[in-house]
Amino acid sequence: MRTMESCRVWAPATVANLNAGFDSLGCALAAPGEFMEFKRVAEPGIHLVNGPGTHLPLDVDANVAGKAAASLLRALGDPFGVEITVTKSILPGSGIGSSAASAVAAVVGVDALTEAGMRRDELLPFALDGEEVASGARHADNVAPALLGGMTLIDPSGKVCALPVPSSWHMVILHPQVVIKTAESRAVLPAQVPLSDAVHQAAWLGRLVHDLHAGNELEAMYALEDLLVGPHRAALMPHWAECQTAARAAGARAGGISGSGPSSFWVCRNAEEASDVAASLAHVMNAHALDHHLHLTQLSTQGAHVVS
Ligand code: HSE
Question: Is the CB of 139 under 6 A from ligand 1?
Answer without folding.
Answer: yes
